[in-house]
Amino acid sequence: MSDVPLNRIDTVAGNLASPSDYLALLKPRVMSLVVFTALVGMVMAPGGIHPVLGFTALLCIAIGAGASGALNMWYDADIDRIMKRTQSRPIPMGKITEGEALAFGLTLACFSVALLGLFVNVVAGALLAFTIFFYAVIYSMWLKRSTQQNIVIGGAAGAFPPIVGWAAVTGSVSYESIVLFLIIFMWTPPHFWALAMFKSDDYQRAGIPMMPVVSGMAETRKQILIYSILLAPIGVLPTILGFASFAYGVAASALGVGFIVLAIRVYRMSDDDKVMLPARRLFGFSILYLFLLFAMLLVERCLGLMGFVA
What we know:
CATH topology of the largest domain: Tetracycline Repressor, domain 2
Strand content: under 5%
CATH superfamily of the largest domain: UbiA prenyltransferase
Subcellular location: Cell membrane
Order of helices and strands: HHHHHHHHHHHHHHHH
Oligomer: single chain
Main location: membrane
Distance between the termini: 60 Å
Radius of gyration: 20 Å
Keywords: Cell membrane, Heme biosynthesis, Membrane, Transferase, Transmembrane, Transmembrane helix
Number of domains: 2
Structural class: mainly alpha
Membrane topology: Multi-pass membrane protein
Family: Belongs to the UbiA prenyltransferase family. Protoheme IX farnesyltransferase subfamily.
């Protein structure tokens, strides 16, 4: 793109875009996590759902998550051009224009919400609409650039999918789905603050008030430890409340202890640590932690439905 003048990028971007560029707009890695947690919410819900409706619900949730990603990239195009970790996205690369991304995101958002509401149920459709609105407007347009608590409050957007999945089956929200929400909600701050620690220069250049930039590394390390300690018992709640087995509770407890141990290592880190290996390890483990918790719930429920678990 070095031979394309910056003032001409918007006029030629549509000619440069490929299907993979539009796929990148959807944030497929984030979408995969959304679909997975929504699937767990659907499978955990009592009763059942017709396979065609279940597939339609998951497809709508995936499209809705993709719409949120596209709208986020549209609004964040200015800072994505500054941050090293986002400069290769389609808009900063000049492959898709901001207008195209906005139109793409709005179209997918409307389509996914309408399809889910009409073919599955109105409650699930409304929850999906609120999730998209929360991520695109409340988080991306407001919280992300205005407060260091951006990821704490904004993390709710990423925690809604299991509730949407549950509602797709039952047409309602219950305490079980709220527990699944709480696990993701409390997991989000230590997960993203660990990332922000070793990407703080990026956030500082872009003017994003992430906690390491605003309050410093010491406060960030303390907050990571606090949220990790709070997260550990919440991860065990499915067993305590009776909708997961004792074996799940033991495994969740062990994972929670591992999370806290890594958070303690981050807390004890030196401010002069340039490599930030403890933060990188916590970030990597946090992904495994969330995946394993939801995978265990999914496997247990599936085995129960097949009669292998009482």
